[in-house]
Amino acid sequence: MTAAGVRAAVSGDARERRVAALRASLAVAQLDALLITSLSNVRYCTDFSGSAAILVVTSTELVLLTDFRYSVQAASEVGEFARVIIEPTSLWSRLWTVLPQLGPLDQIGFESAHLAHGDFQRLVDSQRDVVRWQWRPTANVVEMLRSAKDECEVLAIREAVGIAERALERTVAAVRAGMTEFEICGLLERELRAAGSEAHPFETIVASGERSALPHARCSGRCAAKGEWLLLDFGAVHKGYCSDITRTFVVGRASDEQRSLHAVVRESNMTASGGVRAGMRGKDADALARGYIERHGWGQEFGHSLGHGIGLEVHEAPRLSKANDAPLPERAVVTIEPGIYRPGWGGVRIEDDVFLTGDGPQVLTTFPRELLEIG
């Protein structure tokens, strides 16, 4: 078998396992079908990566509706795994003709978190003349399956991490005092593309000086000066899967105060990355890092959650937060990103991507966590 054939076989096997698990979930929920409108969930089930699609899953049928723009792409990505329908005018109008062909359907679920109100109204209107189907809202049916990654997914995330780290290494070597945040961001994003990233999974954060105290700072025209913090939070995408990394540097020479604060965040990161386990509640994982920071007197300056799952989306299940009582699933890939933020002075965040195996955590990121002086 050729290399392409091996990849196709692996992909096909993964899709079959995923759809079988989804059908089992639908049976438990007493649903005859699920209408999937989240593009990430469509891709998870079928490999289709276009920007317009509706997927219908029943106990025996898998039907993908898309438009003319993706006729060749759908044939290549989906193949014969699902019945692909190319609709030239309206996917929703075509849906009403397809559903009656899928056998007797009564209870049909829809993804309440991903259906726009206008499209929900289409479901309501479909009942106006004849009550054909009972539409039931669902939440996180596919997302819960996605939280545990198979080997193909983990390999893709590992490569996305590698791409991000290669780009970061090249960027750090080129940063100089006096460069604006926009310039540094442009340099980093250029290196990400050069290293093979398919996209930027979220808006790249480059924050210098006191702006590093803004956890989700947007790039600005501010110049990074010597003796200041430089925080970079960014990711890469490989085969649709994301990485998410943060490192905080000092431009020029670091002060003792900067070294001290950075050391607290670094140790809290390492404590959580080494201690997180599958089966641990999300709130207990959060407490690993939060407790360390609180013991060093900075608890009020760590105001966000410890982390989140990554995969086809950069923010997905599970959540590592004070509010999450649910256990972390085995084979999840999560971020560990503690931070301390002092308004008007600056902040530090160190973020790694961690794979939760049955034997313990595997930290996928390898870029140094020690405080580096650059530029």
Question: Topology, please?
Answer:
Layout: H1 3-28, E1 33-36, H2 39-46, E2 54-58, E3 62-66, H3 71-78, E4 83-86, H4 91-98, E5 107-111, H5 117-125, E6 134-138, H6 141-146, H7 151-174, H8 181-195, E7 205-208, E8 228-234, E9 237-238, E10 241-242, E11 245-251, H9 256-275, H10 282-295, E12 307-309, E13 316-320, E14 333-336, E15 339-342, E16 346-349, E17 352-357, E18 360-363, E19 373-374
Parallel strand pairs: 1-5, 3-4, 5-6, 11-19
Antiparallel strand pairs: 1-2, 2-3, 7-8, 8-11, 9-10, 12-13, 14-17, 15-16, 17-18
Helix pairs in contact: 7-8, 9-10
Give the helix/strand class.
alpha+beta
- Shape descriptor reads elongated
Estimated helix fraction: 25-40%
Q: Strand content of the residues, in percent?
A: 15-25%
Number of helices: 10
Average pLDDT reading: 94
Give the biggest beta sheet: 6 strands, mixed
Specify Rg, calculated over alpha carbons.
23 Å
Give the N-terminus to C-terminus distance in angstroms. 50 Å
Enumerate the spans where pLDDT stays under 50 for 5 or more consecutive residues.
Answer: 1-10
DSSP strand tally: 19
| Order of helix and strand elements from N to C terminus | HEHEEHEHEHEHHHEEEEEHHEEEEEEEE
Q: Record the strand order, biggest sheet.
A: 4-3-2-1-5-6
